């Protein structure tokens, strides 16, 4: 349990707190932000999401810089990302800030890649995320953070940055999913 793995586990532990803040109708008030309204609970949840997403970058940086890359980390880090992103996207659908069809495609890709990783793990192979997957994750995290903040600060300009980033992340999600399966198809082909 090195520092990067502890950060990954801390990200997983932040998810329930994030979900409670987004799901429970706290009466903490709200702020007018341009043409939108931002509930204080959603603001706090967004901060927790941003901190959790930040741990993804920090744990990867420390793991590479100090040669602390482990098979546990290669497995848990993408899983933590998928749990965090899936929870956030489903909650964004619930509060009507993200279209369900986009979320279904994104989560389906995540489940398909997780299935491929499980097959690989059964063969003793650990599949790390590639550069396209990291770009996909970055665009998803940005889109989700802005949508959780009800498009702040872009709501002042009436510019739908959050939803544009969500559609961009959808494109990267599909491309990276196809890329992941093409590069790792041998795992499915050669599995027993």
Automatic annotation (TrEMBL):
Chloroplast listed as a keyword = no
Q: Where in the cell is it found?
A: Membrane
Gene3D superfamilies recorded for this chain?
Answer: 1.20.120.1760
- List keywords of the entry alphabetically: Lipid biosynthesis, Lipid metabolism, Membrane, Phospholipid biosynthesis, Phospholipid metabolism, Transferase, Transmembrane, Transmembrane helix
UniProt xrefs under PROSITE patterns: CDP_ALCOHOL_P_TRANSF (PS00379)
**Which parts of the chain are coiled coil?**
none
Q: What pathway is it annotated to?
A: Phospholipid metabolism; phosphatidylglycerol biosynthesis; phosphatidylglycerol from CDP-diacylglycerol: step 1/2; Lipid metabolism
What does the record give under GO molecular function? CDP-diacylglycerol-glycerol-3-phosphate 3-phosphatidyltransferase activity
Reaction(s) catalysed (UniProt annotation): a CDP-1,2-diacyl-sn-glycerol + sn-glycerol 3-phosphate = a 1,2-diacyl-sn-glycero-3-phospho-(1'-sn-glycero-3'-phosphate) + CMP + H(+)
The record ties this protein, via InterPro entries, to:
CDP-alcohol_PTase-I, CDP-OH_P_trans, CDP-OH_PTrfase_TM_dom, CDP_ALCOHOL_P_TRANSF_CS, Phosphatidylglycerol_P_synth
EC numbers, comma separated: 2.7.8.5
Where is this chain primarily localised? Answer: membrane
- Which segments cross the bilayer? 12-31, 43-62, 83-107, 162-182
Q: Does the keyword Lipid biosynthesis apply?
A: yes
Pfam families noted in UniProt: CDP-OH_P_transf (PF01066)
Q: How does it sit in the membrane?
A: Multi-pass membrane protein
The lineage's top-level taxon is: Bacteria
Name the family the entry cites. Answer: Belongs to the CDP-alcohol phosphatidyltransferase class-I family.
What does the UniProt record say this protein does? Answer: This protein catalyzes the committed step to the synthesis of the acidic phospholipids.
* The protein's name: CDP-diacylglycerol--glycerol-3-phosphate 3-phosphatidyltransferase
Which gene produces this protein? pgsA
């Amino acid at each position: 349990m090195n520092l990067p793995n502890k950060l990954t586990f801390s990200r997983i532990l932040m998810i329930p707190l994030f979900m409670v803040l987004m799901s429970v109708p706290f009466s903490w008030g709200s702020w007018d932000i341009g043409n939108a309204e931002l509930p204080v609970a959603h603001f706090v949840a967004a901060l927790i999401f941003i901190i959790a997403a930040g741990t993804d970058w920090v744990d990867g940086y420390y793991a590479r810089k100090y040669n602390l890359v482990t098979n546990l980390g290669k497995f848990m880090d993408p899983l933590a990302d998928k749990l965090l992103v899936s929870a956030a996207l489903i909650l964004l659908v619930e509060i009507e800030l993200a279209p369900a069809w986009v979320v279904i495609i994104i989560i389906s890709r995540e489940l398909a890649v997780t299935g491929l990783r499980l097959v690989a793990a059964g063969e003793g192979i650990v599949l790390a995320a590639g550069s396209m997957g990291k770009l996909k994750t970055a665009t998803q995290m940005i889109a989700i953070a802005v949508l959780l903040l009800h498009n702040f600060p872009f709501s002042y300009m009436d510019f739908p940055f959050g939803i544009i980033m969500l559609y961009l992340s959808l494109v990267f999600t599909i491309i990276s999913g196809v890329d992941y399966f093409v590069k790792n198809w041998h795992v499915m082909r050669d599995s027993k």
